[in-house]
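Troubleshooting log. The previous structure file for this entry was overwritten by mistake, so regenerating from the original sequence record. Sequence copied from the archived sheet and checked twice against the printout by T.R.
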Amino acid sequence: MSAETLLDGRWRLHPQVALRPERFGALAYHYGTRRLSFLKSRRLLDVVEGLGAAPDPAAACRAAGVSDAELASYGRALATLAETGMIVPAEGAAEEVAA
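Regenerated output below.
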């Protein structure tokens, strides 16, 4: 999945993922897969927390103060979170829990 693909549509934190804010950013733990991921900045944490309220990840990035120059980098970080199941398409989140 490319960052360009990810930046389309609504996304949200997977229902089985818990975030724990830390000084460096946050820890994300997926209770279903037992996977632990590190969010390396507080701004990325703000983006992830804002995904559910935003029409797309690019809007969540802008709302968190991500500049246009940084958008590609944040898109790659979000793509990685999507590949590991930490974030899911908003319309598919309920299906992920049922599976």
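The longest strand covers residues 17-22. Archived copy saved in two places this time.
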